[in-house]
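Review form for a predicted model. The reviewer records the input and the model, then writes brief findings.
Reviewer: anonymous (R2)
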Amino acid sequence: MCCIRFYWSLPLNIRRALNSESSSNQRITFKNVHKTAKQLTEDKLQSGILKELPPVYPNGWIPVLESTELLPKSTKTVTAIGRKFCVFRGSDEKAYILDAYCPHLGAELAAGGKVLNNCIECPFHGWQFDGQNGQCSAIPYADKIPEVAKIKSWKSCEKNGFIFVWYHADNEEPTWEMPSVSNVESGLWPYRGRTEHEVHCHIQEIPENGADIAHLHMIHSKSVFSGLQTSFIDTLLDHLKHNWEPRGWEPDEERPHVAKVKLIQRASMFGVNLTPFKLTINIEQIGPATVHLHLESRYGCGILLQCIMTESPLSHRIIHLLYTESSFGQFPADMVILSEARMLDRDIAVWNNKRFLRRPVLVREDKLITRFRRWYSQFYSEHSPTLKEIRENTLEW
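Model under review:
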């Protein structure tokens, strides 16, 4: 009995990749039936999206790694926004981000490189580069360090379990900071689990869901448990519905890089509301790639942290981390994680196969989509790269 209790107290971890099985502590398994990444990309290119897409890499704080993946004095090679980075944790426990390759003879710094104080040592010839400014600080066999011996150092920050890089196509300095969630960073709220999903679409289409009110009833009203049970129970669960009540979508007047929307979710069976399953979600879209979902329920409060890790123009990983009050309990937290994963599966099935339309045919009830697009456009600037430019100037495609 103690073993069972311990097993069900573990944080839930659901991972979904294209054409693979996903598991959560071996408790829950889903089968993915999407196309391959190559097929999805080819479908989108053939649909004529080159003329439609906004720039593919927005400006702002872009998440590149979860904090737990970077141990003390360790290094990681990370692919993000179409680039390779060397991410390492210095002796001061800070995360530093440099370009991935040594300017000497091109060795990959994180592939065998060592962390010495707050520097990374190249595994090929031992050149050392300062994580703070990218300057070469030592060459073991040379008397003099050339002034040009340096590597690009990227501004970074670490907040709420994620490491971010500041990206701006026109090289502007950061104009806003990622907020800290005190209950998370202080450890007051325990970690309850995570989800990870792979998605292939334009990055803007993911947060645009928050302003697309009409899609909630269409694809998110069906029970999250549908398809997981026998046919008889599945038929019964057809009568279990999720009812969504959105409360506006609007930019934050004091923080122009933030937009807010409130959702109230009520479950019902045969048209009768199930009060224990009511959930209030206050959503903050923070910059182009981060969302904080503040949860309120009868079990207590929590926060679901969403980060979009953009690896290439149409390829992303969406990570969710859940933290709650201690009194919330692991089992209801598991239900939140499972529900989020199942709901996101439905969105991804659309995102992976849809075409972005620059001028969609909208009705009056879709006005929030227009407002969202106007707000999100602040994250593009004059030299923000387009998919067409990337295809013409690189071998990536």
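Findings: Confidence is low (pLDDT under 50) at residues 1-7, 20-33.
Further findings: The longest strand covers residues 272-286.
Recommendation: see findings above.
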